[in-house]
Design goal:
This protein is an alpha/beta fold. Helix content is about 45%, strand content about 10%. The protein has a 6-stranded parallel sheet with strand order 3-2-1-4-5-6, sandwiched between helices. Helix 8 links the parallel strand 4 and strand 5. Helix 1 packs across helix 4 and helix 3 crosses helix 4. The chain is globular. The mean pLDDT is about 95.
Length: about 220
């Protein structure tokens, strides 16, 4: 593999920096139950990296009832209200101290950014005490297309004034790895994304990232 010198690292948020997947599951489960649609953790995993409305469309595929756009928007708003209520319980203790130190160290030598489909990224970062650590935040509020479209990562790179070639994307979802590849970014896969063939690197832990960046 050709040695590269990266200038920035773009992190997905949920599942990489912190973990809110259970909150998503509990909120979507409550919505699905109210609509009489079977929903479990396996189905919830398919929603990772997908926008709120697209997630709802995937859930509604299991329903025989048709919903108007206005009704779908109301359902999404209710889901987000449930989710944000659960997020209020988050604190800086929800971030591994070793991950926090690693981010602080990376920030001394690299630009670091968030590339997340979530519209709650800033709120979550505030709750866990990491908001001021990132140079740019590209999230669901400034994109029109969800992963595997690369828009969220390209926006992050643009905010940093860098090209995709100069940035490494860190992702735990296959859709995120695909998005990185589609946008011309190298990627480091952790968690469920490690099996994705398009990943440039595969990590067992986020703490291995400095070693990857040291490959020059």
């Amino acid at each position: 593999m050709e040695a590269k010198i990266y200038k920035a690292v773009i992190f997905d948020l949920d599942g990489v920096i912190c973990h809110t997947d259970m909150f998503h599951y509990r909120a979507w489960k409550e919505i699905a139950d109210s609509l009489g649609i079977p929903f479990d953790e396996e189905k919830n995993n398919r929603l990772r990296g997908v926008s709120r409305m697209e997630s709802l469309e995937m859930i509604l595929a299991g329903s025989s009832v048709s919903y108007s756009r206005r009704e779908k928007e109301a359902i999404c708003a209710r889901k987000n209200s449930l989710y944000r209520s659960m997020l209020k319980s988050m604190t800086p203790a929800d971030v591994d101290p070793a991950v926090r130190r690693m981010l602080e160290e990376l920030g001394a030598d690299y630009r670091i950014a968030i590339g997340s489909s979530s519209r709650n990224a800033t709120f979550i970062l505030e709750k866990i005490g990491l908001l001021d650590m990132f140079d740019a935040i590209s999230d669901g509020n400034n994109i029109k297309r969800s992963k595997p479209d690369p828009e969220v990562f390209r926006n992050a790179a643009d905010m940093l004034g860098l090209s995709p070639y100069e940035c490494l994307v860190v992702e735990d979802a296959e859709s995120g790895i695909e998005a990185a590849g589609n946008g011309g970014f190298d990627s480091a896969a952790i968690g469920d994304a490690k099996g994705c063939a398009r990943a440039t690197y595969r990590l067992d832990s986020l703490l291995e990232l400095p070693a990857v960046l040291g490959r020059r």
